[in-house]
Write a structure and sequence with these properties.
Layout lengths: L1 H6 L6 E4 L9 E4 L10 E2 L1 E2 L4 E5 L12 E6 L10 H7 E3 L7 E11 L5 E6 L3 E4 L2 E4 H9 L4 E10 L5 E9 L7 H11 L7 E4 L13 H13 L9 H14 L17 H15 L5 H6 L3 H11 L5 E3 L9 E5 L20 E5 L15 H15 L5 E6 L1 H15 L4 E7 L12 H10 L3 H8 L3 H12 L3 H15 L8 H20 L9 E6 H5 L16 E6 L10 H11 L9
Parallel strand pairs: 13-14, 16-17, 16-18, 18-19, 19-20, 20-21
Antiparallel strand pairs: 1-2, 2-4, 3-9, 5-6, 6-8, 7-8, 8-9, 10-11, 12-13, 15-17
Helix pairs in contact: 6-7, 6-9, 10-11
Length: about 575
């Protein structure tokens, strides 16, 4: 419209409205030069045509109220070939006897001067967090923001979050702005529940007839969600936080730099996130902390700077009559996987021993299985000063539980139950070779960079191997990163700094596995293996039957290593073994 005005200022322009079902023409309005082209009114009805605005109860709407537009008059079509479709759209109302109406599906309202304004479509009304929302009203507000030329709003279902709003906007030529700035401006004119996730695009998708292609917009909205999660967790704390972020947002994954609110989080969801973080970390977390640190990386930094995490985490609701079951962390460092045991072991107080190094900087990692177990025993004895003790460990946690049991027995305490879930250890220290380091780094490269590395002359790789081999192990990774950057090698959705951190944690886990030394116990031992673990060619039996002079049971669960804790068979067997201890020794 503005372009037409600029080329033909004296031209008279009419805004004309009329669906095909009313033989096109119904109402029009001569557009004044000063009018807001984004909200064109309609005032002059064609002869014999009648307009009605009716609310959800099909009562006449009040002035200013947005309601559905119905049309009556001699130009109405007889109907559609489909009789059911005709019955839905061409109707008669008791309060308007003899008047046959066409239900347009358009929403409109009367302005103060009696003219009519089309506000959107009835099928563009959605419910967001209990509020009825008109997508076209959001669209109109966004179009009014400085520098915005066009806006299109879509709504897609998002599981726990309910419906999520997405808005795609084009900018006025020559105008530049950012999504963050537009988001702040949108907050000034829209309530929290109407704030969409914003994206700036070159142009909105159109169909062949010039109408907005809403199917493509919905695909764009899906792609917005597909692009999240590209920045991988660097540390066990990152991984734990990313899991909680993803659960609350209803996503498969979340990148450590993805903003909670840009991904569809809102104030109510922030309350949920704070609550779940408090449960996961066993530390006080305020909603304000989520607003101040809305990404995983920012919140991890906040945890390291301000929160003192205890290794002991309560997993179940307190029960003064129940005994305690202490669950030791696997290599992930956190204990959230044990929450699958809450229902089958509902008569127990479940505690988790999360990694003491969970919030530590990767450059300060040290310690071994024995020193960690000593620390964990100190904390669990603060909760339960004396036995009998019941210990459970999955994967690396099994080794920690064994070391903790040995320490408790050396202190004269009784261990009544020791459960080991799919746990192995390395019978010799892992080879700290340059070749192993190169292989780990190469797996993190993009496919193009992997090809480029394979095409390097053998002399280059030989020189690099010799260069790294001459360095102490701790200095090799930084040197390799510098060389890779010089070669122009790219990581697959990652950064070299993040990769360094992640490999340091992997090396620390390998060190812990290699530091385990078999001990001699006297407590009952219960071992569970995942069938997939036993079937692997590289499986080395740790011979846990030699671990204790006490009784031993051994069970095989049909599962993979990472899914054994989820299996109903394990739940039943655990509950049966623990049943005799359920109330004995409660503290």
């Amino acid at each position: 419209m503005q372009s037409i005005r600029s080329h033909a200022p004296a031209l008279t322009i009419f805004n004309h409205y009329g669906p095909t079902e009313t033989t096109v023409g119904v109402v029009m309005h001569a557009v004044e030069p000063a009018v807001d082209y984004r909200r064109l009114p309609l005032s002059d009805r064609l002869d014999g045509m009648r307009l009605y605005l009716l609310d959800d109860q099909q009562a006449l709407a009040a002035p200013g109220q947005s309601a559905e537009l119905y049309i009556g008059g001699p130009q109405l079509a007889r109907g559609y070939l489909d009789a059911q479709h005709s019955a839905d759209r061409f109707i008669e109302l008791a309060q308007l006897p003899g008047e046959r109406l066409y239900r347009t599906g358009d929403m409109a309202r009367y302005l103060h001067d009696g003219s009519l304004e089309i506000t959107g479509r009835a099928d563009r009304q959605v419910k967001i967090r209990g509020f009825r929302v008109e997508l076209d009203e959001i669209q109109a507000q966004l179009t009014g923001l400085p520098g915005v030329a066009q806006a299109a709003v879509e709504c897609i279902p998002r599981g726990e979050l309910g419906q999520q709003l997405f808005a795609f906007m084009t900018l006025v030529p020559g105008h530049s702005t950012s999504v963050a700035r537009l988001h702040g401006q949108a907050q000034d004119c829209l309530p929290d529940y109407m704030l969409p996730t914003l994206r700036i695009v070159e142009a909105l998708p159109l169909m062949g007839n010039g109408k907005l292609d809403r199917k493509t917009l919905q695909q764009w909205a899906d792609k917005v969600l597909d692009t999240v999660g590209s920045a991988l967790p660097r540390t066990p704390l990152d991984a734990l936080l990313a899991d909680v972020w993803a659960q609350v947002l209803g996503l498969e994954r979340v990148g450590i730099d993805d903003d909670f609110f840009e991904l569809g989080g809102h104030s109510l969801a922030a309350v949920t996130l704070a609550s779940r973080l408090q449960t996961a970390l066993s530390a006080p977390v305020t909603v304000n902390a989520v607003f101040n640190a809305p990404s995983v990386s920012a919140f991890a930094a906040l945890v390291q700077a301000e929160l003192k995490l205890s290794p002991l985490v309560r997993l179940s609701a307190p029960n003064a009559e129940a005994a305690n079951l202490f669950c030791f962390h696997p290599s992930t460092g956190h204990v959230q996987d044990y929450r699958t045991l809450l229902a089958p072991l509902h008569s127990w107080n479940l505690w988790g021993l999360q990694a003491a190094y969970l919030a530590e900087d990767s450059t300060t990692l040290d310690g071994d299985i024995e020193s960690l177990a000593a620390l964990y025993v100190e904390h669990l004895r603060q909760q339960q000063p004396h036995g009998p003790y019941h210990l459970l460990g999955f994967s690396l946690g099994g080794l920690l539980a064994i070391a903790a049991a040995a320490r408790l027995e050396s202190q004269g305490e009784q261990v009544a139950f020791l459960g080991i879930l799919d746990s192995q250890y390395q019978h010799q220290a892992p080879e700290d070779s340059v070749e192993a380091l190169l292989e780990s780094a190469a797996q993190a490269l993009t496919l193009d960079s992997q090809t480029l590395m394979r095409q390097l002359p053998p002399a280059v790789i030989t020189a690099l191997t010799a260069q790294l081999g001459a360095l102490p192990p701790a200095a090799r990774l930084p040197e390799l990163v510098q060389w890779a950057r010089q070669q122009g090698l790219q990581l697959d959705g990652d950064s070299w700094d993040h990769l360094q951190t992640r490999l340091r944690y992997q090396q620390h886990t390998q060190h812990l596995l290699a530091s385990f030394k078999p001990v001699q116990l006297s407590c009952p031992v219960h071992v569970w293996w995942a069938s997939d673990t036993l079937a692997q060619a590289e499986f080395v039996d740790p011979h846990w039957e030699r671990l204790s002079s006490g009784p031993l049971t051994r069970e095989v669960i049909q599962a993979q290593h990472l899914t054994i804790l989820e299996q109903g068979a394990l739940h039943q067997q655990l509950a049966a073994h623990l049943e005799t201890f359920a109330t004995h020794g409660a503290v």
